[in-house]
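Need the bound structure for calcium ion, inputs here:
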Amino acid sequence: MLNIVILAAGLGKRMQSDLPKVLHCIAGKPMLAHVLDNARQLRPDRIVVVTGHGAERVRAAFEGESGQSDIVFALQSPQRGTGHAVQQALPHLLEGGADDATLVLYGDVPLVQPDTLRRLLAARDAGLALLTETVADPAGYGRIVRNGAGEVIRIVEHKDASDAERAIGEVNTGILAAPTASLRDWLGRITNDNAQGEYYLTDVVALAVADAVPVRAAQPAAPWETLGVNSRVQQAGLERAWQGEQARRLLEAGVTLADPARFDLRGELVCGRDVFIDVGCVFEGRVELADGVHVGPHCVLRDASVGAGTRIDAYTHVDGARVADEARLGPYARLRPGADIGPQAHIGNFVEVKQSVLGAGSKANHLAYIGDATIGARVNVGAGTITCNYDGVNKHRTIIEDDAFIGSDSQLVAPVTVGKGATLAAGTTLTRDAPAGRLTLSRVAQTTVEGWQRPRKKP
Ligand code: UD1
Ligand code: CA
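Answer from helper R.:
Posting the output first, comments after.
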């Protein structure tokens, strides 16, 4: 049985925030959610989250509305150290046999990768395994003390360490894996007789050595994996490190990023071949870009799929929309949820589209609002066209059939239909259906007033 215990009771005072620390985000996702997602990749039999400060908010954030989840919460109040925190999880750990293991993770160390955790579990070899790292500045960390034969014999916390021990560069990341039954036994034997008066999880190392249980160490693949967040400065630093890593993975996969240092992915981005992404774009939720998609600078794309060869120009927002192949969007276009843009269609500057289908080759190039509309193929939507979809109470649909031409500055008061090949003259306010193939207009006839004079300023 594999148990994963995630420590998340700490206060996070240096964040200067009312939000519990583990709910602060990296790449748009709470730190604890990163830890949980990585933990789940190991297919554990049980996940226990130890909460303390802000316990109710942390719990609420991860329980479904039904209160159902795959997580067991254990409360640690007050917080008496990392060993005491894991003690609170002990009643919930599952045991089944000799290969039982418990992996301890920190809720504020969000980016330890599943591969690193798998290597740690493999290194365990039925004993205790520690994730350690050699760093240039070990101040503050627990130090890994090894004997002459190079075997780990104990961990000494910085505050309890001698000068000689403080010179050790190999530090404890805090992450470890242990045989569950032994961990239970060791945690029953630790004391708080130390500089901080806390129950240290790290004291289990010396107990394992005394019990002749093998202690091994493994190292993370990348240094950013074990960076913890205690302050906004550290959060910002880790955000950049992770964005750099995500950018690197996309570059490796063949995506061109105009500047990998000016790229933000807060979700999942799936790209085809030869995709180009200019500077300052933000991707959220799940975004798919097919082969040859070009994304101009400063675009925001959320939960969207974009077809092959489509070009998105600068400052365009795409949210909850689908765009087919070889379309053109922007600059300054806005697609809202339910926008479905057909192949070779064009959506130009200051055009907003919501809950609408735009057929193949149709164009709305300037200043328009298209809401709750079904627009066929090869339709031209003139500048300033507005679908009046909302009567103040209900939304109504506008239907524009193939090859229609909507003159500039028209208002289509829904529900209304423009027939196939119909033309609306500029400035039409359409309140009844426009018949197919005919010209429809609604205008006051133009007159010129003879003899009219401009008023003059009184002397
Ligand atoms: C701990 C380790 C240290 C290691 C360092 C890595 C111990 C005694 N020391 O140090 O060897 O180098 O992490 O960052 O384990 N937590 C609780 N309840 C508590 C105390 C802590 O849930 O009572 C949680 C915190 O929220 C945090 C994690 O445990 O997620 C580590 O706590 P922190 O105080 O940062 O660890 P240190 O004592 O600095
Ligand atoms: Ca810490």
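Comments: The radius of gyration is 31 Å. The chain has eight helices and 36 strands.
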